[in-house]
Amino acid sequence: MPPARTVLVVGGGTSGNALAVLLRRAGIEVDLVEVSPDWNVHGSGITLQGNALRVLREVGVWERVREEGFGFDALGLTAPDGTVLHVAEGLRTGGEDLPATVGMPRPQLQRVLADAVRAAGVRVRLGCTVEALEQDGDGVTVRLTDGTTGRYDLVAAADGLNSATRAAIGIPDRPVPTGMGIWRVTAPRPRGVVRTDLAYGGPAYIAGYCPTGEDSLYAYLVEPGRDRAALPPESRVEEVRRLAAGYGGHWKQIRESVTDASQVNYTWFHRLLVEGPWHRGRVVLVGDAAHVCPPTLAQGAAMSLEDALVLAELLTTHDTWDDVLLTRYRERRMPRVRMVVENSVQLGRWLLDGVRDADAPGLIGRTMAALRERP
């Protein structure tokens, strides 16, 4: 019997964890390295739409996600004062047997996936990443930052939007800011919050919230991208409360609960789409290392999870791992990813440019309809 194939997954985020589980379950030997010593168990909340849930079911964690998150089937559009303008129902992109959306705390999703990685028998090293790569026709020799070396049939770079592995293999693409920034906070869930509601306009471009559990939600406020590096932590609460004061409805209760600066974070929106090959030899990009979209469609995690599913399917059903197979992976993913990246950016661009007659509901609806198809 030939020896088992070996894969190194670089990055233990959503896509890296999912890929590691899917490959290991198929009998492939998998090592996973993650530079963060705490395995990235941080963040506020995450919106998981049906096509993301479909992949999480394949990974084997859907039951825990359902139990520990908050599922719902509607999206509300409101005026800044809280008046409900429209409720869209039934956007079940994962199929009729899955809810349209599940919100959950991002750290909890990471714990669920990390538990699945460990249970699958993946060898995990935290606080460690790749220092150097050397390829030949048969595989990749890797030197890690802990001083060890390994030999692998394939390296999957799932190390995020600022992927050092992407740069190391000579792919020059880098993420570009789109001009928007987002404040995210965690807060208690008002009893009346049972879905995502979005308000366009007011002090921010977008003000929204998503229930993440029986007692929790995360809320977000989108503004022009600013340099917030010098902002004292105690001012973060003040800044969020100032923006939130311009919104009615449930925002009053959410605003009053924002008191802890450690529960507030601020990041910029970025876009990235690697237009050329997503691999060099036997090193291949996955998730945010290959594409990043602003969260205006809440599809970033879903696109990364779909990458993991498609790549795992190809690797586990083909004996030859070569340029042809890895090119096929990119060709399957590119049209879908391009649509999501471009449509996500377009929604933000309309807001930045103040386009009042933009057909945002139509663009969202067309995108969600397309995503009902399996990747």
Report what the structure shows.
- The protein is built from ten helices and 20 strands.
- It is of the alpha+beta class and 375 residues long.
- The chain has a domain of 244 residues: FAD/NAD(P)-binding domain (3-Layer(bba) Sandwich), CATH 3.50.50.
- An eight-stranded mixed beta sheet has the order 6-5-14-15-16-13-17-20, sandwiched between helices. Strands 8-2-1-12-19-18 form a six-stranded mixed beta sheet, with helices on one face. The protein has a three-stranded antiparallel beta sheet with strand order 3-7-4.
- Helix 1 runs parallel beside helix 8 and helix 8 runs antiparallel to helix 9.
- The longest helix has 31 residues.
- The radius of gyration is 21 Å and the shape is globular.
- 47% of the residues are buried.
- The mean pLDDT is 95.
Compact overview of the structure:
The protein is α+β, with helices and mostly antiparallel strands. It has helices at 14-25, 50-59, 62-68, 106-120, 164-168, 233-244, 251-257, 300-317, 323-353, 360-371; strands at residues 6-10, 29-34, 45-49, 70-72, 74-78, 84-89, 101-105, 123-126, 130-135, 140-144, 149-152, 154-157, 176-188, 196-200, 206-213, 216-224, 264-273, 279-280, 283-285, 291-292.
Q: Which helices and strands, and how do they pair?
A:
Elements: E1 6-10, H1 14-25, E2 29-34, E3 45-49, H2 50-59, H3 62-68, E4 70-72, E5 74-78, E6 84-89, E7 101-105, H4 106-120, E8 123-126, E9 130-135, E10 140-144, E11 149-152, E12 154-157, H5 164-168, E13 176-188, E14 196-200, E15 206-213, E16 216-224, H6 233-244, H7 251-257, E17 264-273, E18 279-280, E19 283-285, E20 291-292, H8 300-317, H9 323-353, H10 360-371
Parallel strand pairs: 1-2, 1-12, 2-8, 5-14, 12-19
Antiparallel strand pairs: 3-7, 4-7, 5-6, 9-10, 10-11, 13-16, 13-17, 14-15, 15-16, 17-20, 18-19
